[in-house]
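If your schedule permits, I should be very grateful for your opinion on a structural question. Thank you for your consideration; the sequence and its tokens are set out here:

===
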Amino acid sequence: METSQHLFWDCAFAKNLWTWLASTVNIVIDTSSIDTVLNICKKFWSPQCKTVITAAIVNLIDVIWFCRNKVRFDNKIIHWKSASHMVISNTSLAGNHSSGSSFSDMHEFVILKAFSVTIHAPKAPRIKEVLWHPPIVSWIKCNIDGTAKGCPGPATCGGIFRDSNAAVVGCFAQNLHISTAFHAELIGAILAIELASKNGWISLWLETDSQLVSMAFKNHGLVPWRLRNRWLNCVELTKNMRFIISHIFREGNRCADKIASIGLQSNSFIWWDSIPCSVSDLFNWNRLGLPDYRFC
């Protein structure tokens, strides 16, 4: 009685094909089961090479089944070398249509060329210049940030208020104990608006590196119900202000990020009238108009 173990792994035809594949990829393949065969896909391959090797395994199994049916129903015997060319042809199609890139590695180069796959070189990273801009005269700009070490985990938020001369008018940080990063970002925005209202800063530019926080001002449904009332109260406060919200990449928000991290060292709300010493280098970097860079 023919078994799948014999057909796909143990018969001479299958063994020849698996030996050929092992020599092509230059790796020992354990053909005791499909799980052990697929283990070779778990190695550190580039996305394109991993696609090619996975496709080769799948196509090899498919070709074995195809050749077996040819023998049984058409009485036509296909040599294993011809079968290997079928595997190459089908695998080439998958590899060339892969959107993944390859590594600059000779081992991968040999594998891809063996399957007639065009190498997809990795794209060069795009470099974006990120600049922090001060507000216009009579406006106050507050950069905020929130973070959590876990989801949930120890969380904190913070912010820095600056005027049109890029001078600090105040900074704050708040330890939020156990929370999520999004919750911390929202609390940072809430505290910034409440503090601006309390200090009479009626022209407020709020800037964050969280797209979700920016979206929450337009879609209040994004705000968790535990913060909803306080959030809506802050939105009402902004109606009595000249208020704008903007997004900045994380690289341009390093001052707020550093200030927020200080909150983890305290159990309560902290307010500074001047820049904390540990943030002075980042603050001066922004004030001098020096750029940061984002690689994407």
Q: What stands out?
A: The CA atoms of residues 21 and 227 lie 58 Å apart. Residues 129-295 form a domain with the Nucleotidyltransferase; domain 5 fold (CATH 3.30.420.10). The chain has two domains: 4-114, 129-295. The two ends are 57 Å apart (CA to CA).
